[in-house]
């Protein structure tokens, strides 16, 4: 965790997550009936809950649309869910208008080329460890964990640490 990342994380008011490859391992599982399922990390979910409890708003923007993501967002209490939206920067613009926030107040965690315009535009744009190499090169930082394996938790804890709230968030469980 560099000083630059901590500096970027100080003013974050909104954390935005991609799904496939970030909140999941990036694999798509299709059943014979055409339905699909996804595997989410409970570590990531806890990190998102801790971030929201500290007052940071959360959102999901995904190019794909599945009921599993809607269910996961509901389970975690993520209020802003956008699915089936390929141009993520357009979606973010809409959301920033609703929340009256600036790009500098946004952190984004992604893994592939559709995430890159947002990663490059926001105050803290990060990639997961197993993101496409071109995306990792252009992100402000890269998590040590892979997507679906604790990368979102690491991202959340970075923001909490940058804002001086991580110790209090952890102490709540002692």
Task: Name some characteristics of this structure.
EC 3.1.3.45; 174 residues; six-stranded parallel sheet; alpha/beta; single chain; 8 helices; metal-binding; hydrolase; 41% helix; globular; Rossmann fold; two-stranded antiparallel ribbon; metal ion binding
Would you write up a description of this structure?
The structure is a single chain. This protein is about 40% helix and about 15% strand. The protein has helices at about 5-10, 40-55, 65-75, 90-100, 115-120, 135-140, 150-160, 165-170, and strands at about 15, 30, 35, 55-60, 80, 105-110, 125, 140. A six-stranded parallel β-sheet has the order 5-4-1-6-7-8, sandwiched between helices. The protein has a two-stranded antiparallel sheet with strand order 2-3. Strand 6, helix 5 and strand 7 form a beta-alpha-beta unit. The two termini are about 25 Å apart. It catalyses: 3-deoxy-alpha-D-manno-2-octulosonate-8-phosphate + H2O = 3-deoxy-alpha-D-manno-oct-2-ulosonate + phosphate. InterPro entries: CMP-NeuNAc_synthase, HAD-like_sf, HAD_sf, KdsC_fam. It comes from Pseudomonas saxonica.
Task: Please compute the radius of gyration using only Cα atoms.
Answer: 15 Å
Strand order of the largest sheet: 5-4-1-6-7-8
Strand content: 15-25%
Task: Provide the CATH architecture.
Answer: 3-Layer(aba) Sandwich
SSE topology string: HEEEHEHEHEHEHEHH
Number of helices, counting only DSSP H or I runs of 4 residues or more: 8
Helix content: 40-55%
Question: What's the CATH class, please?
Answer: Alpha Beta
The major sheet is characterized as: 6 strands, parallel
Classify the fold: give the CATH topology: Rossmann fold
Mean pLDDT: 96
Give the name of the CATH superfamily.
HAD superfamily/HAD-like
Whole-number tally of structural domains: 1
Distance between the termini: 25 Å
Structural class: alpha/beta
In the predicted model, the low-confidence regions spanning at least 5 consecutive residues are none
């Amino acid at each position: 965790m560099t000083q630059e990342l901590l500096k970027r994380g100080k003013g974050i008011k909104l954390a935005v997550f991609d799904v496939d490859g970030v909140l999941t391992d990036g694999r798509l599982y299709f059943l014979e009936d055409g339905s699909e399922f996804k595997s989410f990390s409970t570590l990531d979910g806890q990190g998102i809950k801790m971030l929201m409890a500290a007052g940071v708003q959360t959102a999901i923007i995904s190019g794909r649309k599945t009921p599993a993501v809607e269910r996961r967002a509901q389970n975690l209490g993520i209020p802003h869910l956008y699915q089936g939206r390929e141009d993520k920067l357009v979606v973010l613009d809409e959301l920033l208008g609703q929340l009256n926030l600036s790009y500098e107040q946004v952190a984004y965690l992604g893994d592939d080329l559709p995430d890159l315009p947002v990663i490059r535009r926001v105050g803290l744009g990060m990639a997961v460890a197993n993101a496409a190499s071109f995306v990792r090169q252009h992100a402000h930082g890269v998590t040590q964990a892979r997507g679906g394996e604790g990368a979102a938790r690491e991202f959340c804890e970075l923001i909490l640490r940058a804002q001086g709230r991580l110790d209090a968030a952890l102490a709540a469980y002692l």
